[in-house]
């Protein structure tokens, strides 16, 4: 809720918002997250206690929750702190998509350089990087989390920010057990190299056909093109015929007719550590970036969050984890008494591509892209409401559109995707690089009230 001059006020219940809008005392300022602006009240005339913003960062998704805390007297006469969840937002990142696009671009450039000048010397590695540099896929996670936090601070009176900052021990995770001090110095390849280690492990034979006495190549069980890594547990030895026959197919498909051999090979696979590496690389950057909002930032451990969530009997989701971030002390009667029943799902979609052409799978231009982004007043990503007069999709629909030059735009809704004329559309909210939807919060915690 906003005052008449646009300053943030305390959030209100949806029923209260409908009542104010019905009386004509407010107008809709934004659809998602739904925000109203009062016409008859300034911030100086309102009582604003302030709310807290709690963030649970993740590799693929981040949970954000607006909460307020109040002192109450329990049935024993003791003063306890109760926490209420006001707004819950689940931010879905697109770091994997950015990573794949960067790999595709690198492949195009590598092919062009090797095809045009095969024997050219490698370019010198003299490009410096600024302090705090992060790859685009990781920088995206930091910037989108900051963007959503800044938006919530604009629409709600946030006084402080609480964030979970957790570090993962990737060495211990790769071993599957706790390590002592000296064991950290002895990794899988201690005293050897990858090729020698694989030759000893597979007895100088092909892992797929047991061929010996032939040239052996290093093959990825999960291909790099399908998200596989260079981790030693993802590598095997393969002869040239098997390596070419497997190509970039999954090992489960390649060895479908050899279940015993497949089971032996799959046993060596380990859980990928990309997500843990992402969190280790961005945990400090995110906290420093959030400090630019001008609110005090408090960092908490993952163990504290898990303890609070378990004590309250809440499910394991990003938004409920965000609600549990920070000091709560359930043993002394403090509790979470309410959490939002509906979660706003914000999916990062980007703002389009700057490329002037669409390439084929070899990197050659296939067609030219239009330099015009708006057609008939609409741009791709806009949130619109369509009134279809007739046909299979007759009715009123709300969703995001993909524009076309002929005015027959494509509308994506929860029920499907269909074409609609521009004259049957009405703009609800301009596209901002995010797609919006909602989902219910799991109702496993029956001890607490939901709103």
Task: Walk me through this protein's architecture.
This protein has 451 residues and is α+β, with helices and mostly antiparallel strands. The chain has helices at residues 14-22, 95-116, 136-155, 170-175, 194-201, 240-246, 251-254, 259-266, 274-290, 302-312, 318-323; strands at residues 26-30, 35-38, 51-56, 61-73, 79-92, 158-164, 216-220, 235-239, 297-300, 335-339, 342-348, 357-359, 365-368, 374-375, 378-379, 383-388, 395-402, 408-413, 416-421, 425-429, 434-440, 449-450. Mean pLDDT is 87; it is low at 445-451.
Number of strands: 22
The count of helical stretches stands at 11
* Main sheet properties: 9 strands, mixed
Mean pLDDT reading = 87
Assess the beta-strand content as a share of residues. Answer: 25-35%
The secondary-structure class comes to alpha+beta
Share of helix, binned: 25-40%
Q: Describe the oligomeric state of these chains in a short phrase.
A: single chain
Distance between the termini: 17 Å
Radius of gyration, in Å, reads: 27 Å
Q: Can you tell me the overall shape? A: globular
Q: Which residues form runs of ≥5 with pLDDT under 50?
A: 445-451
């Amino acid at each position: 809720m906003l005052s008449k001059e646009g300053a943030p006020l305390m959030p209100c219940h949806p029923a209260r918002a409908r009542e104010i809008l019905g009386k004509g005392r407010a107008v809709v300022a934004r659809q998602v997250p739904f925000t109203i602006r009062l016409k008859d009240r300034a911030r100086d005339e309102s009582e604003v206690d302030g709310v807290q913003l709690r963030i649970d960062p993740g590799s693929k998704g981040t949970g954000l929750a607006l909460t307020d805390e109040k002192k109450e007297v329990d049935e024993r006469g003791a003063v306890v702190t109760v926490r209420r969840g006001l707004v819950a937002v689940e931010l879905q990142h697109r770091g994997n998509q950015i990573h794949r696009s960067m790999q595709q671009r690198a492949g195009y450039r590598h092919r062009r350089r090797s095809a045009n000048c095969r024997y050219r010397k490698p370019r010198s590695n003299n490009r410096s990087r600024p302090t705090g540099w992060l790859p685009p896929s990781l920088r995206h996670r930091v910037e989108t989390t900051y963007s959503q936090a800044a938006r919530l601070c604009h629409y709600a009176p946030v006084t402080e920010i609480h964030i979970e900052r957790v570090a993962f021990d990737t060495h211990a995770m790769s071993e599957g057990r706790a390590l002592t001090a000296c064991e950290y110095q002895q990794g899988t390849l201690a005293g050897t190299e990858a090729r020698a280690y694989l030759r000893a492990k597979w007895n100088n034979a092909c892992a797929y056909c047991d061929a010996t006495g032939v040239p052996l190549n290093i093959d990825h069980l999960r291909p790099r093109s399908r998200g596989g890594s260079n981790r030693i547990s993802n590598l095997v030895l393969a002869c040239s015929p098997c390596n070419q026959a497997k190509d970039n197919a999954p090992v489960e498909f390649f060895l479908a007719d050899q279940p015993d051999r497949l089971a032996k090979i799959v046993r060596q696979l380990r859980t990928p550590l990309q997500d843990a590496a992402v969190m280790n690389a961005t945990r400090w950057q995110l906290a420093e970036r959030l400090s630019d909002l001008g609110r005090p930032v408090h960092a908490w451990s993952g163990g504290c969050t898990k303890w609070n969530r378990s004590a309250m009997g809440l499910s394991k989701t990003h938004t409920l984890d965000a609600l549990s971030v920070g000091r709560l002390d359930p043993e002394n009667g403090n509790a979470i008494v309410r959490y939002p029943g509906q979660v706003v799902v914000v999916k990062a979609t980007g703002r389009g591509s700057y490329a002037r052409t669409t390439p084929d799978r070899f990197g050659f231009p296939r067609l030219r892209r239009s330099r015009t982004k708006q057609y008939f007043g609409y741009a791709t990503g806009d949130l619109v409401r369509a009134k279809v007069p007739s046909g299979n999709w007759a009715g009123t629909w709300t969703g995001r559109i993909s524009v076309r030059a002929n005015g027959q735009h494509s509308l994506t809704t929860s029920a499907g995707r269909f074409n609609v004329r521009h004259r049957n559309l009405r703009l609800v909210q301009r596209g901002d690089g995010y797609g919006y939807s909602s989902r219910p919060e799991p109702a496993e915690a029956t001890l607490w009230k939901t709103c």
